[in-house]
Amino acid sequence: MKNYFSLTPSTGTLKDEQIIGREKDIYNILKALSVQSITLEEMRRMGKTLLLKKLAYQCNHNKVPEVFKKENFRAIYISLQGKQNLGEVIDKLIQEFNSFKKWYAIDLSKTGEFIAKLVNSIKVDVYGAEFSVNLPEYQRNWKKIFFHTLENVGENLQKDNRKLILILDELPIMLWDWYQAGRHKEVIEFLDILRERRQELENKGLRFVYCGSIGIKVILQTLRRTLNYTGEPTNDMREFNVVPFSEEDSSFLMECYLLSGYKIDTGKKTEIFKMIHELCDGLPFYIAHLFLIIQSEFNLEVNEESVQKSYHLILNNSSYQKAFKQLTERLVIYYKDDSKLMDKTLSLISRADHPVSEGEIIIQIDAEDEKIKDILEILTEDHYFIKTADNDGRKYGFKYKIFKEWWRINKA
Questions:
Q1: Residue 318 and residue 406 in contact, taking contact as beta carbons nearer than 8 Å
Q2: What is the pLDDT, as a whole number, of residue 105?
Q3: What are the DSSP calls for 192-226, one per residue?
Q4: What is the chain's Cα-based Rg?
Q5: Which of 86, 88, 130, 165 has the fewest CB atoms in 10 Å of its CB?
Q6: CA-to-CA distance for 391 and 33, rounded, in angstroms?
Q7: Segments in 164-303 forming alpha helices (H)
Q8: Which residues of the chain have pLDDT under 70?
Q9: pTM here?
Q10: Contact at 8 Å (CB) between 141 and 87?
Q11: Coil, strand or helix: which one is 145?
């Protein structure tokens, strides 16, 4: 018998031990992390953060699959969104290393000694409550401090034969904010330091996970286009994407929701769960969203009618569409020069009831052939489309049916 537990549908965060599913994803990610660092990307509300927090929880509580226990994995999750400079990043790292002592003590005494020499001090306690490198006297040495902090961590891992997964969530967003603020040199320096440290310290047991709702490729393409940047900071990292829930994981999630007060005809439960899974493309955020609407609009009654009406509200009622705004906003923010052409392409494909061939798209959209091909490739890499190929050439369709329906109804 499965161990269901009462869970209130929420579009917010969950306790680490309550995060459902993702076992296969975690297995595959740990398999890669055994030998190299990875990048993980997908649009917002796809479950990236919960996946990574469950990964960290399992590593730090000895709950990884048996085959990986010999790797001695530990993990630290850090969100970089909103960090204004390298000083704030270093402070956050040191704070997390300090709080990490419950699972594994990181000795940063060498880092403290290095910083003390920089400021002509007898001693610097990096774990002290008042310590911060985000001060004027440290600023010109941030790169060196960052370098030595990671080196110090690597020495700890090598000595104890452990692997530490350093999860840097929203790294691309942070770098984008720096770029938009005109701090181009800092973006490039940070990427180059990370590349050098990662390549050097992977041999000592340090693994990095770069995660973001915009891919690191967006940042790199912008740097290459505007600054002629030629660096390849992620070229030897394994790429991962977040996939939808399996029907089994979706059903487990819904069983937990039912325990928080929902009512359902048990004889129709399997059929209704399958309907919800398919309507929501197995995306846990939208399953939770649908249950929240059933709670507020249909008195907790889960049946075919309430499910269909709730799905209709998700697609048609502006009160329930906040999560879809990213589909249009990210075009303007990250691809503003091409956003109108991308909008036309998305609208064309949303109106079709089958994948659309590249040739047909080129015929129907007034632009240069190569430009259309570039845009189709970008929208595929950015998780709007899935690309297939047959005897008639390349074809494109929306990656998620729920996004296609929303775009067709509200934008096309």
A1: no
A2: 86
A3: HHHHHHHHHHGGGTEEEEEEESS-HHHHHHHHHHH
A4: 24
A5: 130
A6: 38
A7: 171-180, 184-201, 216-227, 247-258, 269-279, 284-297
A8: 1, 11-13
A9: 0.90
A10: no
A11: helix
